[in-house]
Amino acid sequence: MALSNIFETPAPGFNFDNTARNAALEGLFDGGNTPKPMKTGTTIAGVVFKDGVVLGADTRATSDEVVADKMCAKIHYISPNIYCCGAGTAADTEKTTDLLSSNLTIFSLNSGRNPRVVMAVNILQDMLYRYRGQIGANLILGGVDCTGNHLYTVGPYGDVDKVPYLSMGSGDLAALGILEDGFKPDLELEPAKELVRAAIQAGIMNDLGSGNNIDICVITKQGVDYIRPYRESQYKDNRKMKYKYRPGTTPVLTEKVVPLKLEVVLETVQKMETA
Amino acid sequence: MFEETGPVWLSEEVKTGTTIIAIEFDGGVVLGSDSRVSAGASVVNRVMNKLSPLHDKIYCALSGSAADAQTIAEIVNYQLDVHSIEIGEDPQVRSAATLVRNISYKYKEELSAHLIVAGWDRRDGGQVFATLKGLLTRQPFAVGGSGSSYVYGFVDAEYHKGMRKEECQQFVVNTLSLAMNRDGSSGGVAYIVTIDEHGTEEKVVLGNQLPTFFDQ
Hints:
heterodimer, A: alpha+beta, five-stranded antiparallel sheet, 5 helices, 28% helix, extended, B: alpha+beta, Glutamine Phosphoribosylpyrophosphate, subunit 1, domain 1, hydrolase (chain B), zymogen (chain B), threonine protease (chain B), threonine-type endopeptidase activity (chain B), Proteasome_suB-type (chain A)
């Protein structure tokens, strides 16, 4: 009998296999200056409006003071009706949301229905609590299911909050100011999108770890509108991206042709079975 | 500036730094809590309801680490569900408190959460149990959380036996208001839950409706 709950009970205790590897790595980089994990130093926000949920995120991923990715996708697909914004350690948010998405797909196939947002939240909370904060994922989950429109946040230690609007990441306080000022229950679609855009914009303007473009994801009962990018940064660089030069650009000074002498040593014919 | 890998509060554990209170009256209990969740100096959620249902007529009040407290409440909720199906009737408040105590005691070193369990059952009426650090004790009333230190004097002086339901509700609201005024980690709105034979009533008292005292 197939269970609709695909999670096996995990082995008790923690898996510390990587500590040996990390110790070895520290030996390679003298003085323990191992490269720091890429953090998304981010602004993400979500708002529940009349017909659904709007999620927004910036697109900058930083590694210390260098922008590692200018068009990073921080709004992750979980299921057709649930999307998740992630802040914190980039690898942790990616993998956690991937894992959650796979498990919920299996659940959908087994049960024949779209998962509920609260189920996604419970699975996430379970996993993050078990790892006691070692997984640095701050997630905003938003989605629409048969019970309504929901917005949840899950912290790295496994605490869950259900709220009508929120922001996370290093730019969250800037974004929260905009949200606190502009939020009203039962907003229409356009004002809700504008509110989220303004909140992310505040984060981009006031936080060094956030920047570049703004992605928006609108989830309603009718479907999902993933607008990437919703607003582009005005500081775009005009690089060509494709560097193809026509033949003759580089002058040829000399040319020497050396024919390779090849002999046929062995020739075999293998008939293909097409029956 | 560039050394940081994000704001300090993002990596700090989220605590509920709280004021919670539960009090028994003849025929039921009243539970109350504030609504502030803090991570370091930042308020992560200003409207969190820390009164979590364990069963229809049994609630618990959360304090300490938010993740630990929420998880304990969820686990006990599940265990109580199974237990009540097994015995075929509503569980006793003492059973709920014992389940919470078992987890708090066994994982004493790893967890840092304190839950106050209160509810009504047919056998003993309204009951309040404190489960701090793995003990189990029934008390006429219990306060907990960081804000409770500021109101021990108030509750000790003002409590008397034989308070009616409305008096208890007022007592709870007053206590919460005083604690929220003095404790930096408590604030927001006050959630009140009243449980008696007839049912469970949840109420929210907004910030501007809380009773004011001499300095406000």
